[in-house]
Prior knowledge:
By secondary structure, the chain is α/β, with parallel strands linked by helices. The protein contains 13 helices and 10 strands. Helix content is about 45%, strand content about 15%.
Amino acid sequence: MADTWVRDAVNELNADFRRSADTHLIRFSLKEYPGIHFYLKDESTHPSGSLKHRLARSLFLYGLSNGWINQHTPVIEASSGSTAVSEAYFSRLLGLPFIAVMPASTARRKTEQIRFYGGQCHFVATSSEIYQQSAQLAREQQGHYMDQFTYAERATDWRSNNNIAESIFRQMQDEPYPVPHTLVMSAGTGGTSATLGRYIRYRGAPTRLLVTDPENSVFYDYWKHRDPGLTHSAGSRIEGIGRPRVEPSFLPDVIDEMLKVPDGASLAGMYALEKILGRRVGPSTGTNFIGLLHVAEKMKANGECGSLVTLICDSGERYPDTYYNPAWVAENIGDISGFQSQLPC
């Protein structure tokens, strides 16, 4: 039987959900693609600032319901930033200590936000070290390792409960093309793409799912060859997406198509969206936008009309020192002008 603190904690998480209005679905058009409507679901407006707010709430509910988290449990997570920010937010809500294990290269604004919510940052040299360090810290602290990369797909209710997929389809109901031609999503844990792909099949919708993958990530190759032992020696340079190993939450069978996106193209897409929207978005959103344009080109060639949907994963205001710093981009990504010249916007 659940104790009083656990019942109160679950109620706090449900109350946070009820206080949160649904995120806005932004529509725009590009003259180069007549008859194609582009949509961005703005997940940056969550209280903790990113798509990972939904995941963090689900992971806490999962841990509480499984008996893994109680009133005195330190929470530890392996993260490149956004999930850790959201989990720090919920840890403060529940009065629990929180430690984020993350690469030392993580954007400074993210680490500041984790500390703002009362969390601690434990840095490692490379992204491949975060798993072992997180598990070790959990043992030493007698805490709970959230392990988003394992539990993201199973902690989320992919059929209802206002998950990201159900929300998109509901918000699209009165649009000119209410059933999306394609949903586009980049993969970090793989949990969001799993939710989208499952929900499409659950609804019996003709919508396709395209997953974009950055450089230094194994997801694209795993989707093609199904070798679960694939690894990469370097980490993704696009924060929040791409992994150096195959994560348990990544489900290749619910994906219709994958696209490998060069990091320079991701940043070119990010800057293009800044001009379209009049505000900054994060680099993974740029990766998503390149996926939208990839599908739009094929639709245009086939004479198709319809709607394309992706997400604004987080705000570009988290990256003034990195992706929006020309000197940092030149040193870490390289010359992206060639990618920019290829974009229609």
